Amino acid sequence: MLNIGIDLGGTGIKAGLVDERGNILYKLSCPTLVERGHEAVIHDMAQLSLRVIAESGHDLSEVSSIGIGIPGIMDQATGVVPFCTNLAWHNVPLVKLMQQEIDKPVYVNNDATVAGLAESVAGVSAGSRSSVFVTLGTGVGGGVILDGKVFMGEHGVATEIGHMITVAGGELCTCGNRGCWERYASATAIIREGRRFCEAHPDCPLAREVGGDLSKIEARTVIDLAKAGDPDCVSLFDNYCYHLTVGIVNLINMYDPEIIALGGGVSKTGQFLLDKVNALLPEMIFFKDMPHARIELARLSNDAGIIGAAMLGAQEG
Amino acid sequence: MLNIGIDLGGTGIKAGLVDERGNILYKLSCPTLVERGHEAVIHDMAQLSLRVIAESGHDLSEVSSIGIGIPGIMDQATGVVPFCTNLAWHNVPLVKLMQQEIDKPVYVNNDATVAGLAESVAGVSAGSRSSVFVTLGTGVGGGVILDGKVFMGEHGVATEIGHMITVAGGELCTCGNRGCWERYASATAIIREGRRFCEAHPDCPLAREVGGDLSKIEARTVIDLAKAGDPDCVSLFDNYCYHLTVGIVNLINMYDPEIIALGGGVSKTGQFLLDKVNALLPEMIFFKDMPHARIELARLSNDAGIIGAAMLGAQEG
């Protein structure tokens, strides 16, 4: 059977027709244009899905379900999205409105959760029973697969791993707490620490790299200089990797998965990142003589949203 | 059917005959005498179990299984206890040796996990599908029940919640890391902070309470003075409750259970503790408008080890 997977973001909508192994048979995208309101966005998602089916030469009757990954959470009991900042949505009955457009089962979940499901079906975690997917981007998101299924918790608020507190009393987070992992393990953290360092050391290579304009410092600027051996940036990046590993240790202590897959912008650092984490991990694991999760780089990149969303229905069926 | 539950500690062995609802029909105890070596201890566990069955007027044929809670972990694949500090055990084939004594299925798990299972069957979490039990004692241990079953993780090293890092770079832990939750949420933490405060303020009411002998400060000393309104101890205990709540927030963000049950020595503080945690929690929860876990005091106290151990077999069957 085939499923439609939709990756709904603040800027773009991507829809794809996906087979049961997680292969995308055909995909299309269009801008989200959030400001038009949720009804127009949902209508476009439906139209895009129908075009994908038609242009791929398939028929709606072959499609089992429609899955949607959203940059927020949905109340699974009601099918309503209580709030979604990036979409400016508030109490949107997404499942009902989507089913009025296309009469199929509709499944919705958080975009990081959906990407984690995709990795577990068709990516780096394929074949594993349990895995944690971690997105290292502007923030830190997570998707947890236990016993081959998306782990949601009792109230659907589990796996907010970016907001586990790893530095109590530390940096103020957007959520109101201090010291969330996200404040230390996101690309944003690398940028913040790079800028702070340059403010204290205006003549350092990092500051010179951006011509003294600290607003131009990106995570990549720091990482590239670290790779090139600049001692300041090595130190900044090592500190980042320490805090990243702290959270990974917590994930192991809590979920003990087979695989922890790192995705998102910072994961593009590749082996340089993985080597540092794997060097720190053995000393920080609680049971030092027992096997533990492998740390891997996520593989599916931009298609993870479509594949994982399609799999939401597949795993229900 | 009936099951035998054994609570194996560093000082004492307790064994009980338990019905399927978690009622103890009969129980006995004896000293562990660790220094005799594991074979004598296992023999005593078996003899104690047989005495429990005989003295209760039941027959071995009525017993489905034997469950054992140990102060460590067992490799579930091999039935071997790799190490157990409190028992001075190293690579002990517990399941095999116990079955040589009594030919029944033998199930073994960590004592905090076992206590969590007991609470979920016959204690404060009874009737819930998911719960996290937290022991606040010398250290911090945990037992996680998901979908009505003990959650073990892929390698049996999950739910080491006391060693999640909540203060990266903080207090040195016995495990070698810095800033484990256990360093901030255990009775040991209250004692440490009380002593430190007295060292800096030798004339404070807490120091006077113990006649200047700081080695006499117990967690209870600080808590009792806090309850009596001493501002220093209120401040010490508030700080403790903040760190306790940090970990609870992390448990909610990770497991999102129905109930988080607090057990162990510090939980005997009762409503005074619960009120402080519940006052902090709403502001620290990520999804502030969504329902989340209730925080409760554990109920089974000393019998939790026997009941939970007996339930290990019951939940397998």
Briefly characterize the structure.
Two copies of one chain form a homodimer. The first copy, chain A, is α/β, with parallel strands linked by helices and 317 residues long. Helices cover 38% and strands 21% of the residues of chain A.
Class derived from helix and strand content of chain A = alpha/beta
Most extensive chain-chain interface: A-B, 50 and 50 residues
Unreliable runs of chain A: none
Which H/E pattern describes the elements of chain A? EEEHEEEHEHEEEHHHHHEHEH
| Topology, number of strands of chain A | 12
Q: How far apart, in Å, are the first and last alpha carbons of chain A? A: 10 Å
As a percent range, the share of strand residues of chain A is: 15-25%
Instruction: Give, in spatial order, the strands making up the sheet with the most strands of chain A.
Output: 3-2-1-4-7
Q: What is the radius of gyration of chain A?
A: 20 Å
Task: Give the assembly state of these chains.
Answer: homodimer
- Biggest β-sheet description of chain A: 5 strands, mixed
Helix content of chain A: 25-40%
Number of helices of chain A: 10
What does this structure look like?
The structure is a homodimer of 317-residue chains. Helix content of chain A is 38%, strand content 21%. The first copy, chain A, is α/β, with parallel strands linked by helices. In chain A, the strands form three sheets. A five-stranded mixed sheet of chain A has the order 3-2-1-4-7. In chain A, strands 10-9-8-11-12 form a five-stranded mixed sheet, with helices on both faces. In chain A, α1 crosses α2, α3 crosses α10 and α7 packs across α8. The longest helix of chain A has 25 residues. Chain A is globular, with a radius of gyration of 20 Å. The interface between A and B is large, with 50 and 50 residues.
